[in-house]
Amino acid sequence: PPGLRRPVPRAQADPAPAGTGQGGPPASPAQEELSGQDLPPRGPDPRRGGLPLPRESGSEDIDILPSGLAFLSVGLKVPGIQCFAPEKPGGILLLDLNQDKPRALELRVSRGFDLTSFNPHGISTFIDEDGAVYLFVANHPEFKSTVEIFRFEEEDNSLLHLKTVRHELLPSVNDVVAVGPEHFYATNSHYFSDLFLKYLEVYLNLRWTNVIYYSPEGVRVVADGFDSANGITMSPDEKYVYVADSFAHEIHVMEKHANRSLTQVKVLHLDTVVDNLSIDPSTGDLWVGCHPNCLKLIIYDASNPPASEVLRIQNVLSEAPAVTTVYANNGSVLQGSTVASVYGGQLLIGTLFHRALQCQL
Fold this sequence. Notes:
EC 3.1.1.2, acyl-L-homoserine-lactone lactonohydrolase activity, disulfide bond, protein homodimerization activity, Neuraminidase, membrane
């Protein structure tokens, strides 16, 4: 895995389609290029309105409903990666971003679901026509891979477990994006499920990872050839699916067809390790949690922790997407950022094993 990567003021696209995509106001001027061995603090300062959430057991992924309720997956355990609470099972936290001082609440899960082995990774929500909210969770019980489907019961702040999805085409699920009550796209960040073979495929750069489409009627590969398919999300108009390829430092823009198949439109090349992706539904801007020095995640040193970085990509579908570094910290405040989501002028940043951070934009 690469070391420090400098953020770039503009993405390189290959190839670029005609026309322009969605986007909000113009990005702020690019910051000066970084130098040295670490990222200095940049962007919203948590001491000026930010709120470090207290539980230091990771907040690997975040999904925010249009109502301002944010779901956070916490407690992910990955072999060989630092963990501050190895004895505590994972869970789902709920945060109401409409409150002045929101407090994270751990959601109760219905009886019958094995909480002792709950190891949540990427998450996604889906709102049905009747207003029902479904939460999809990539789960790794005993370091295997499943996708869990819950219905969110808002009146009592709980999750009703509906279904566990297991399939041979889901050997190493990283993230999901829900497109129906039982329908989703999922990324496999590794081709193999065996830990040794996972390391081997990375070492050999096999590019065998993929995107899967699941429905009760069938499961199939809809995109492949990635180094390490990671975060996945969808444009507000549901016409495009965005896939992060971590080790290749790329974001793939895929057109979604009526039969749920995907066709690659373009690739954004970024000079950092990209993790989870989030969409601002009001602008179509893409928000990316990144690892500027990924090696520090694997070889953890508390005196020299992994840094955090958040990118905002505007006009994703245009010939010249604008890439802005919104937040950067050398690990003194936030270690190992994985995701960034926005709501109402607020920015939530999650991490692999550290804490979550709430900032005012």
